[in-house]
Design a protein that fits this description.
This protein has 504 residues and is mainly α. Among the domains are: 43 residues; 197 residues, Serine Threonine Protein Phosphatase 5, Tetratricopeptide repeat. Helix 7 runs antiparallel to helix 8 and helix 15 runs antiparallel to helix 16. The N terminus is likely disordered.
């Protein structure tokens, strides 16, 4: 090394002495000589692994990706408030903007860059020949892919049921499609059915499930039930838009195995720390602003429905004079007018402390009650779903809902004995009640069925209950041509353009 350095130096001196170069050029040569020496030195030295961080993996850990993706289900889907307000299960207290249907343009990009991108990465890693062996430390490759596909379809259904058309087939491809086209909602539903069926074909219950699984802790039998219940729900959702496809997919889901009892309810498991706890607990820890809606209060009171006493707490200061339960036991269960400033929240009933006072409350994703009521509707349509009548399935749905909330058996029997009608309106009403605090499903099923009849909130800017979210203005600004194209197909970008499956 010293010899090479001396050679470069001697060459420079000789060139100057004999006039081969000017002083200005000497400086340039000196720089080149220094660079050459540095290159030689670096090439000769082995730094080993001192620049490698043993705690910083170069490949994403799939268990962590799965955990983060699943958190979106608990934080942004099953505990979201918007659908609960629109279906008038609850209303707001001091800040009724959402109850008045204002400020309801929103952006779907966070779903793409967050949970869905994490799921895409899980699938990619477990398919990559160079990475899949390492990924197997976190569960069987196919089972990891299957779970990622199931959750991806679940999240996609949630967001398409909000906005309708979305970029999908050209999304997630970076510079290849910087402005992706929108897929219609019909195309998205067709894609989701394929996604779920592919997931079901990949599941092997004898192999290890994915690590980092907050919902089932890697139990693939439960994930199979989740997939079929999701498929059943999607099928019923499109029953007015594509009856034949809906029927075939619904029947296939039932044959594959859906939730059969409350013991199989699919619930989201929250943690005890502030970063992973139940959002309802956080909301009521910081601001008490969600009250029992007078719409739901009056419906439960009129029908002497004992779920009134399980869904909410008695008001601290308020009471009603016209009660409907024996001995006036419902007097302290007070609903607030929808869309008004209900500033004195203590005059009204608040959601039960079972939910708002428990950091680890398990929020329902799908329940036996929802499944039984869906089966009752399918039976009414004449679909092949096995045993049971419309009447018996409706009754089972009511019973499962009440048992889930801890209603006494004598009260359950009294209610079902008094409510024996089994029309579509009866099924729709009971589903609305049973989906209490499951905003996305309650809102979607109410839009599909248009029952029960709800009166728009007072003081609403537009006296119509929204049937979709509008796209955020940035969507039009950043993808104007494709935005204009899909609006010409789907309809005006406002809160009142019905989605593809919303035919009533």
């Amino acid at each position: 090394m010293k010899r090479k350095y001396m050679l470069f130096s001697l060459l420079g001196v000789l060139m100057v002495k004999f006039g081969f170069v000017q002083q200005k050029t000497i400086n340039n040569i000196a720089c080149l000589v220094c660079i050459s020496i540095w290159y030689i030195l670096c090439e000769a030295i082995d730094f080993g692994d001192i620049n490698e961080n043993p705690n910083g993996p170069t490949v994403a850990v799939t268990s962590q990706l799965l955990t983060e993706a699943q958190k979106a289900i608990g934080n942004s889907v099953v505990t979201s408030v918007k659908g609960i307000l629109f279906t008038q299960q609850l209303t707001e207290g001091q800040y009724p903007s959402s109850s008045r249907y204002t400020g309801l343009t929103s952006n779907y990009n966070g779903w793409y860059t967050g949970p869905i991108q994490n799921l895409n990465e899980i699938i990619k890693i477990n398919r990559d020949e160079d990475l899949m062996t390492t990924a197997e430390a976190f569960g069987d490759n196919n089972n990891q892919i299957a779970v990622a596909k199931i959750i991806r379809a679940f999240l996609l259904q949630n967001i398409t049921d909000r906005w309708g058309a979305l970029p999908w087939t050209e999304a997630f491809q970076g510079i290849d499609f910087p402005q992706p086209k929108f897929d219609t909602q019909e195309e998205l539903y067709n894609y989701m059915f394929v996604e779920v069926d592919e997931a079901l074909s990949l599941i092997n219950i004898d192999n290890s499930g994915p690590k980092g699984d907050l919902i089932f802790n890697g139990n693939m039998s439960r994930w199979k039930t989740f997939a079929n219940t999701l498929k059943m729900t999607m099928a019923l959702r499109i029953s007015d838009a594509n009856p034949s496809l809906a029927k075939s997919k619904f029947e296939a889901a039932i044959a594959g195995g859906v939730i059969k009892s409350n013991s199989e309810n699919i619930l989201f498991n929250f943690g005890a720390d502030d970063g992973s706890d139940n959002p309802w607990q956080d909301r009521f820890e910081s601001r008490v602003d969600y009250l029992l809606s007078e719409t739901l209060a009056n419906a439960l009171r009129t029908n002497q429905d004992p779920r009134l006493f399980k869904y909410v707490e008695p008001s601290r200061d308020g009471s009603i004079s016209e009660t409907n339960f024996p001995n006036g036991i419902d007097a302290k269960y007070v609903g607030a007018p929808n869309g008004y400033v209900n500033g004195n929240v203590q005059d009204y009933s608040l959601p039960t402390r079972t939910v708002t006072g428990n950091q680890r409350y398990k929020s329902p994703i799908y329940t036996s009650a929802q499944v039984k009521l869906s089966l009752a509707e399918a039976k009414l349509k004449g679909w092949s779903i096995g045993s049971g009548t419309v009447e018996s399935l409706l009754k089972e749905g009511i019973e499962e809902s009440m048992r889930f909330w801890g209603v006494d058996e004598l009260d359950i029997n009294a209610y079902t004995d008094a409510h024996t009608s089994a029309t579509l309106a009866d099924i729709a009403y009971e589903k609305w009640v049973a989906l209490y605090l499951n905003g996305p499903e309650a809102w979607a099923e109410w839009r599909r069925l248009d029952m029960p009849v709800l009166i728009p909130s007072g003081n609403a800017v537009d006296p119509r209950i929204p049937v979709r979210d509008a796209y955020d203005s940035s969507i039009e600004d950043n993808n104007s041509a494709n935005y204009a194209s899909i609006i010409s197909i789907q309809g005006p970008d406002n809160l009142h353009t019905k989605l593809w499956w919303d035919k009533n």
